[in-house]
């Protein structure tokens, strides 16, 4: 099922199509969660962050397993006309931004969760939560966009 041809009409397998669609809409979902915080709907902001973090973690695990089983980037790159070295540099930058953003996201979520559970919303408001949150949002959105670009490089061109 995971490795059957995908539904987007490219040479990508099903799991790649599915994950790419997820990361295409991810910045919008994240933006909506931030919008809830701007509207001071902190409970909904918290729930949406928890759901997004859980779903994204599962998607990344599926992605990593799929990639390992199918031979990884080098194998997929054989079918692309784009310069291998260019894709390698692009992929490296993507991985660095994505790993840092993901770590910052996990840190921000659990540090905020601790204060939220203790009913200390003011602790969050008086911290640099907003600044780190904006950086996390920006970093994850760039990572998603670059991931979609890598999909296009590998399976469309
Ligand atoms: C347990 C999880 C979380 C709780 C309880 C929580 C709670 C809050 C609270 C109380 C605020 C208002 C802060 C202020 O006005 O200065 C806020 C704002 C914000 N949060 Fe979170 N948050 C959580 C997780 C996250 C995460 C993981 C992100 C990462 C994207 C994030 C992004 C933001 C942003 C960007 C704002 C600023 C919104 C604005 O411009 O007013 N939050 N959050």
TrEMBL record:
<feature type="transmembrane region" description="Helical">
    <location>
        <begin position="82"/>
        <end position="110"/>
    </location>
</feature>
<feature type="transmembrane region" description="Helical">
    <location>
        <begin position="12"/>
        <end position="38"/>
    </location>
</feature>
<keyword id="KW-0472">Membrane</keyword>
<keyword id="KW-0812">Transmembrane</keyword>
<protein>
    <submittedName>
        <fullName>DUF420 domain-containing protein</fullName>
    </submittedName>
</protein>
<keyword id="KW-1133">Transmembrane helix</keyword>
<dbReference type="Pfam" id="PF04238">
    <property type="entry name" value="DUF420"/>
</dbReference>
<dbReference type="InterPro" id="IPR007352">
    <property type="entry name" value="DUF420"/>
</dbReference>
<feature type="transmembrane region" description="Helical">
    <location>
        <begin position="50"/>
        <end position="70"/>
    </location>
</feature>
<feature type="transmembrane region" description="Helical">
    <location>
        <begin position="135"/>
        <end position="156"/>
    </location>
</feature>
């Amino acid at each position: 099922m995971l490795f059957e041809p995908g539904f987007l009409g490219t040479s990508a397998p099903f799991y790649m199509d599915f994950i790419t669609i997820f990361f295409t809409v991810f910045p919008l979902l994240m933006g909506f969660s931030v919008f809830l915080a701007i509207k001071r709907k902190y409970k909904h902001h918290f729930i949406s962050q928890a759901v997004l973090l859980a779903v994204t973690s599962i998607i990344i695990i599926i992605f990593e397993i799929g990639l390992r089983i199918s031979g990884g980037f080098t194998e997929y790159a054989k079918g692309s006309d784009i310069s291998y070295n260019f894709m390698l540099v692009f992929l490296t930058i993507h991985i660095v931004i994505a790993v840092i953003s993901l770590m910052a996201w996990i840190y921000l979520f659990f540090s905020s969760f601790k204060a939220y559970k203790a009913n200390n919303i003011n602790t969050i408001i008086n911290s640099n939560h907003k600044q780190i949150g904006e950086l996390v949002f920006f970093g994850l959105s760039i990572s998603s966009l670059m991931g979609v670009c890598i999909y296009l490089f590998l399976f469309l061109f």
